[in-house]
Structure formats: C-alpha cells, structure tokens
Amino acid sequence: MTVKALGPYNFPPADRQELFGDDMLVHVNWDGNLLFCAAACFRAPKAMTWGDFKAQMVDPWAAGDPDYDPSRTKDWRLGDVPFEPDPNKTLAEMGVRHKAVIKFRD
Amino acid sequence: MGYELRTMVVEPKRQTFDPLVARFGDRPATRYQEGSFDVQATEHFHYRPTWDPAHELYDVDYSALKLTDNYRYADPRQYYYATYVTDAAARYEAFAQTLAYVEDRRLLDRLPEGWRRVLTGAVIPLRHYEQGAQLISSQAARFSYGTTISQAATYAAFDRIGNAQLYSLVGLALAGGGSDALSEAKENWLSAPSLQPLRRIVEELLVEKDWASGLVALDLVDARLYPLLFTELDERALADGAMAYSLIARHLSDWYGSQQKWLAPLLEAWTTDPTYAEANQKVLADIEDRWQGRATDAVRAVAKLIDGAVR
Amino acid sequence: MSAPTTVRWVGVDLQETDATRAIVEAIETDNADITIKHFPGMIKIQSPGPLHINRSTVEEKYGRPWETHEFQLAIISYAGNIANWDDDEIVIKWEH
Amino acid sequence: MTKLSMKERYHLLTRDLDWTPTYVAPEEVYPHSRYEGIKIHDWGAWEDPFRLTVDAYCKYQAEKDKKLYAVIDSFAQGQGHLGLSDASYVNAVKLFIQGVSPLEYQAHRHFGYLARHLDGAGARFASLCQSLDEIRHAQTQIHTISNYNKHYAGMHDWQKMHQRVWYLSVPKSYFDDALSAGPFEFMTAISFSFEYLLTNLLFVPFMSGASFNGDLATMTFGFSAQSDESRHMTLGLEVIKFMLEQDEGNVPIVQDWIDKWFWRGYRLTTLVAAMMDYFLPKKVMSWKEAFELYFEEQMLGGLFPDLAYYGINPPRHVAQAQAEKEYVSHQVYWILYQYTHAAAFNTTIPSDEAMAWLTESYPTTFDRYYKPLWDKAKAIEAGGGRFYNMALPQLCQVCQIPMGFTEPGDPGQICFRQSEYEGELYNFCSDGCQWIFDREPEKYVQAWLPVHQIYQGNCGGATIPDVLAWYGIAEGDNLDYAVSTDKTSWDEWHAKGGN
C-alpha cells in the first residue's frame, strides 16, 4: 500500500544515514531492567570500536542505575541475533547499522 | 486558610506569554492579542499534505501576496471568538426584530410596484452569491498564514453564510413563510441574464487557488454591489416609499461596513510592507486588471435589472 | 479483556448546575430504568434503552418555555446516536 | 401557505444555498474530494447532524461565553489559584496548554478546510460551525490559562514548546498526520476517532479532575467546550455512517482508517492516562476506570455493534489497548518522570497515599512492576540524588513516544518492532504503530523526531542547556516538583496566608 496523493509524494527521510555523515544512531536496551524507561539512543562514529562505544557511551548511561556493574553485562544481541562483543571491532564491522537496536542483560 | 489567603495579593511573576512580551513588552496583553498573535504553528511540520505535496501544512506560498511579518496585520475590530459571536448575535437579533416588524406590519405586501421584482431578481438571489463568498473566505481562513489574518477570514466566512441566511429569511417572509420566493430567486440566479455575469465571476473565483486573489477579487465585486444595493437603492426606496426595503438594507449596509473594517487594513498591510510592498502592489494591480472590469460589468447588469423594475 | 457488556447503554453527561436540574428531573420522569452517577461537576445518566428528552416535560419542570436547542447549554457528552432533535424532543439511541 | 417544518426551513437556509456550477467544472471547484477513493453518489442523503442556523449559533454561543468569561474573571480576581488542592496540580494545566490547546487551533483551521473543500453544503456548514467552535476552545483555554501563567512556570512559551519539545511532538505529529491526509480521512481521524471514540477520555476525566482539585476556571472552559463537543460527536458519527451508506467500496477504506486512527489516538491518550493517575493531587477515577467506562462500555459495547451493521469491525489492535489499561499510565509517567529535566513541567515520586491508591486501582500490576521502580527512585533520592535518564531515548517512528511500552502479555519486556524501507531502518513501540508505518511508509519517513533532530544539531546545540534554551524552557520550568519554583512560591503564599 502506498500513500494516495494529488501529485508525487516522495520525500527523503528526515533522519536518513547520509545526514549523519560518518556517524550513525545506535539504540541500546538493558533488557529486563525497566528503570530505564526505553532504549538509549546514541550518535556514534561507524568506525568507533566496540570497546570505546561500551566504555564511553553505554557504561556512563547505564551507571545511572546504582546497581549497574559494567563487567556483568551479557547476552548481547543485535536486533534478535546474539553476538560476542569484540572490543577491537568497529561498530560497522560488527554489522551495526544506522538506527539498529542492541540489547543486553545483566 | 482561605480567608487569610484572600486578603493577600500575589504579585504576578510575568504579565503574559513570551511571544506577546516580545512583541508588545512585558505588560498585560489583551484577550485579542493572547488569542491571536503567534498562535499558528510555523515550523517542524511532520508530513507534507497529500492534497498538495508541493507545500507545507501552513505555507506563505499559498499566496503571491506576502508580509515580512505576518502579524504586521491585526484586525482593528479586535475580534476574537467571544467578542465576535457577541456582536454577531446582536446583529442577527436586530435583523430579526426588523424582519418581525416588517412581517407584523405586512410591509413587504405594501411594497410599491417593481420592488418585489428587485427582491427576487437581485437581492434574494444573493443568498447564493454569499454562499460562494463563504467558500472563498473559507479558502482564506485555511490557507492564509498567521492567526490574525486567518481568524478575520474565518469570521468573514461565517458572516457570509449568515448573510445568505438573512437573504433567505427575507425570501421566506416575502412568500408568507413559504419557499416560493426562494425558488424563484434561485431560478434567477441560475438563468436570469442579469445575474449570469455575477454568477460566472463567483464560480471562477471558486477555482482560484491563491486565497488572497480570491478574497481581493471578491472584494472588487462587493465594493460595487453592496453600495449599489444598500446605499444607492436605499435612497430610491425611501423616495419611493419602499419602507421594508429600506429597513432591511440598513443591516446589510452595516455588515459591509464591518467587512471593510478588517479587509481595508489588510490591503494596506500588503501595499506598505517593508519588504514586499512593491511586489504586492504588482500582484494587486494584476488582480485588478483581471477582475475589476468584469466586476463592474456584472454589477452593471444587476443595476440594469433594477432600473427596469423601479425608478 | 473487555468487560462483558450485554446491555448497550446510551446516555448523556450533563453539567451539574442549578440550571440543569430540571432537565435531569424531566429525564427521570420520561425514562424508566435509568441510572444516575455523580462526578465532580458532572452528572452521568445512562439508560438501557432509547433516552428521551421531551420539551413539554422540561417546560413543566422549569415552569417556563424551553427550546430543545437550549439542551446544548447543559450537555457535556453523550453515548449513542442522536436519532432525533426537533422542536419537541431529543432522542438518543443505538440504531442497529 | 402551510408553515414549513424545522427540517424544511433548515434545508432552505443551508443546503438550498448551493448550486451546481456551470461556468467551471464542479470537480474543479472541489478538487480534493476524490483522490482518497471514497465514493459519494448523493450528497443530498447527508443527514444534518444538528439544525442550528447562524443566528441561533451566535445567540447560544454568546450566552455560553458570557458565563464562561465571568467565571474566568472572577477566578482571576479572587485569586482562585490559591485555592487549588496543591500547586502540583498546575502541571496538568501545563500539559494542557502545551499539548492540547494547539490541537484545538489546528482543528479550527482544518475544519475551515472542510468548510471549503467538501462537495456537500450540509457537511460544509457543519464543518464551518466546528471550525468556529475550535477557535473558541483554543482561545478560552489560552485566556483561562493566561492567569495561571502569571503565577506558575511552564506555560509562558507554549507556542514554541509545542513545536519543539520532544514529548509535544507526540500530539503535534498526530494532528499533522490528520491534516496532511485527505478530507475524508481527516474526518475519520478527528471527527470520528478523536471526537467520538476518544475525546471523552481526554476531556471528561480531565475536567472532573479540575473541578475536584479546585480549578473552577478550567472546569468551566472544559465543560463549556464539551457542550460544543456533543455537536462534534454527532458530526463524527454522521460522517462515518454517510461514507458507509454511500458505497460498499468505502467500507474497507473506512475500516482501515478506523484501525489506523484508533491506534494513533489511543497512543496519544496515554499521555492523558499518566496525567490522570499521577498529575492530579486528588484523583477522580483511574485511567483504567475511565477506559472501561468511556471506551469499553460505551464504544465497544454500544457503538461497534451499531457499526457491525455496515460490516465494520472493532479497531485492529484494540485488544492491545485493552490489555494496556492495566499498566500504560505507569509506563508513560515513568517516562515523564525520568526525563523531567528536559520537560516543561515538574514530576515527583508519588506520595505514600498516592502510591496506596495506585496499588488499589491496579492490583495486578502496580506492586509487581512499578512500585519496585519507585522504591529504587526513592533510594536514589535518599542518597541525595534524583533519578534522571541521562541518555536520549529511542523514539517510535509513528507515535513518537519514547519506546517504553512493553510486549503484549509481558509488562516486564520492552516491545521492539522494526521495518526496513528503502534501505533505512525504522523502529516502533508496538504492532499498531508498525502496521501504520507499513501502510504508508512514504508518509512516516518524513517525521521530525526530536531525538534524531537533536543529534543532527538542529535543536540549538549539543548540550542539554542549549537544547532547553531552544525549547523555550527556562529555569523553574523543569526538574522535580520538590525543587520547583512553583512549590517554593506556593509554600511562601500559603505561609503568608497563615496556613
């Protein structure tokens, strides 16, 4: 189904990847912990390593929960596909795309 | 606790909303100002309209006539909803009283020769003209930019359908409460040669996309039609002893005065705008070129009918 | 889960003011089996069948002429379909 | 001469004004009324939902406003705001002027559009009346709340806030969605789904809440507006029936729109759910009770069996809304609570008394899922902190609410849905929102999502203070109620007052 309109109706997405250049938006959710009401949204360089992403973005945010222990994160998934974090791989190399969702548990 | 509180005066922290403070200073704003200035959204429209994908939901480009600041214009009557309906209610009440008097004294039956023809041939058919005028005004109410303009156009649209109902009430009264005079007037609107140039203008203005062009061109017609019917002809009615006509005419002539009160300053705002004055003047001149002659001809055809009916 | 509803209520919500009291009384007079609930500032009237508001009954309760248009000054909301609104009565019901 | 009936007379004063143009093509006069696929064969079959002429309209409305403005004036002159149940109540009023009044205004403009662009004169006149009613609502709200604005925070720049602040993109995008649709879909969205199906959930409990909390001015404008609303509801129902009766081919189109706009409207009302259960110091009824009374009983129980006659089913995804009545208000308030540093209202941890009421009102969910969160927030506060979420949240592409809703059947698990369209990913809070996107992706890819715009640098800067300044949020508008200027002032006024 498409939009019915009086004239061509095709506009570029307001938050398409190209507007973020070498960066992209990445969502991270702490599954099973409702303290954070929703997944966090970060702007991160595609070339950022997983190690930096976790230490510089995920950990400071999750530390808003006094019970957060950065060493206890586990069960990582990209969308619904499990992955083993490799701190030296870049987000792009891991297959993380603009507006993708990463989930973990503790 | 309540009693003690009432004796203490709490000083306000601010007098009004920020956009009004920015425009008029930090002092209490009028209800007209608070309900009008900067009320319409201006940014971050989420989706393009499917009925006009080339524009935004609110867009200055719905007209060629432009203002540097759209709130450069304000309605001198300062009508917001409550004051508008209050005045309108009084106007309709006054008209109802006039009509009741006219009916009570059977003044329509006592109209001198020819005046009935003026009513069914020229005046009552304006109920259709006014409905067309409502559509043109509603186009302005939706597509103009900024609440001061769109609000005045909204009330004008409602006035026009109100006028259409006043003309219809005259028609009902003329036929003793029945619909015969209305049918006759409608027939005239659709086929009498004296009204066809007028109907043609209205129909062509209905397909005019630029809301301001529609409004301005309609005003060119109004500016000839209303003085003819309700000022000049009123003189003749008085001379001729057509009391009912004169009593009714006053209400329509008053309405036209109120219409001018909001519209004339809008034209002035366009022609004196610091940025767009020159461009606007050209657009307005084009509108005049296109419609003025035709408006004159259309109203002349109505005048001719009247001249044939009464002296 | 939806609360199982066998009765298809129609109803009106009216402002709780002195001026609406006569209307409420007229509704009570003309409609059997209605239920009335009070909320702050508001009265909720529900009826298992069509709800009638009759001009003549309201006029009797007010002791003065009353136009059905005046109902607009009292009503907050309603449930059902306004099947008729003329000079003499207002009827709210489900059609099908 | 026989006297005309009310119906005949009304007909002559409205529909008989119309004529079929001959100098231009009729379809050129009404160019917007065919492209949506709705077929109307006979506008003459339109049943006028009410029979008010312009003179009667002005008379009754002037009378209503005379009463209303007298109350507004006396409330202001008598410093009625000092008699509220508590200053925290004003947060509900803030949400109203920021989020609802601008919608009234949008409705005003676009019913003006219907008054121009529908082919049927009866429907146009009803729309024109509604266009006037809606500017009435916007203005009476502005005028009532103007008095609160003089004394309380969060309302001083509502116009700017409505267009910029993250949570207000929820109502704005909802209305932008309706306005950008064709005239028939707009009527299904606003006249039917919003005014008929859902408006009671917004207004009636809100206004009863205002009354109960000492806000007579708001109660008066609310109930006075509602008296117009009953006309709007009638129009909404007439529109739906008219489309369904005109052509069988209209039925699936209307069903689709009902499905879409129920969910869209329901998601919007979850903000009201949070307001009802958490913002009002004195509670009137819970969201769950209101939902059962006004939606389940009256709409699912009453209206939809009527519409079944035409082959219309209850809205797709309605079961999800029914399941959520047990917990949705807690989820939305929890979002608002933890992002209060970026909001133009104040939230706080519910008092023990309020918490007990929540436990009692939501016996199966509150203690199990939400009380533990509040306990944690309390613990953080006991340690001298205040729990604020310091990351920007993921937003739903369609409803634009932070994605804090949970999986059907599991209030413990956040719900994620994702679609790919032309090489880009889009995220949704629910099956309902995903379904809406997948129907019309070209529309929803345009959405101005506040979080994504902040990250593009379009919202005043990169830091929270930059963005707040751009939002029009000043000191005192945001943060916890405990440290708000509203509370400070209230305590001061009442101390002086001898309390």
Write a short abstract of this structure.
Chain B has 311 residues and is mainly α.
- Overall shape of chain A: it is globular
Number of strands of chain A: 5
Q: What's the alpha carbon Rg of chain C, rounded to whole Å? A: 13 Å
Order of helices and strands of chain A: EEHEEE
The major β-sheet of chain C equals: 4 strands, antiparallel
Percent range of helical residues of chain C: 10-25%
Secondary structural class of chain C: alpha+beta
pLDDT below 50 for ≥5 consecutive residues: which ranges of chain C? none
Order of helices and strands of chain C: EHEEEHEEE
Structural class of chain A: alpha+beta
Could you say what the CATH topology of the domain at 20-89 in chain A is called? Answer: Ubiquitin-like (UB roll)
* CATH class designation of chain C: Alpha Beta
Major β-sheet strand ordering of chain A: 2-1-5-3-4
How many beta strands in the DSSP annotation of chain C? 7
| CATH architecture title of the domain at 20-89 in chain A | Roll
Protein described:
The complex is a heterotetramer of chains A (106), B (311), C (96) and D (499). Chain A is α+β, with helices and mostly antiparallel strands. Chain A is built from one helix and five strands. Chain A has a domain at 20-89: Phenol hydroxylase (Ubiquitin-like (UB roll), Roll). Chain A has one helix at 50-62; strands at residues 23-30, 40-45, 74-78, 81-82, 100-105. The radius of gyration of chain A is 16 Å and the shape is globular. Chain B has 311 residues and is mainly α. Chain B has one domain: Ribonucleotide Reductase, subunit A. Chain B is 68% helix and 0% strand. Chain C has 96 residues and is α+β, with helices and mostly antiparallel strands. In chain C, the strands form two sheets. Chain C has a four-stranded antiparallel beta sheet, with no helix packed on it. In chain C, strands 4-7-6 form a three-stranded antiparallel beta sheet. The mean pLDDT of chain C is 89. Chains B and D meet through helix 1, helix 3, helix 4, helix 6 and helix 7 of B and helix 1, helix 3, helix 5, helix 6 and helix 7 of D.
List keywords for this structure.
heterotetramer; A: 106 residues; alpha+beta; Ubiquitin-like (UB roll); five-stranded mixed beta sheet; 25% strand; D: 62% helix
Strand and helix layout:
The complex is a heterotetramer of chains A (106), B (311), C (96) and D (499).
Chain A: E1 23-30, E2 40-45, H1 50-62, E3 74-78, E4 81-82, E5 100-105
Parallel strand pairs in A: 1-5
Antiparallel strand pairs in A: 1-2, 3-4, 3-5
Chain B: H1 2-6, H2 18-24, H3 31-36, H4 81-104, H5 115-123, H6 126-143, H7 147-174, H8 180-191, H9 196-206, H10 211-240, H11 243-271, H12 277-309
Helix pairs in contact in B: 4-7, 4-11, 5-8, 5-12, 6-7, 6-9, 6-10, 7-8, 7-11, 9-10, 9-12, 10-11, 10-12
Chain C: E1 10-15, H1 21-30, E2 35-39, E3 42-47, E4 51-54, H2 55-62, E5 75-79, E6 81-85, E7 89-93
Antiparallel strand pairs in C: 1-3, 1-5, 2-3, 4-7, 6-7
Helix pairs in contact in C: 1-2
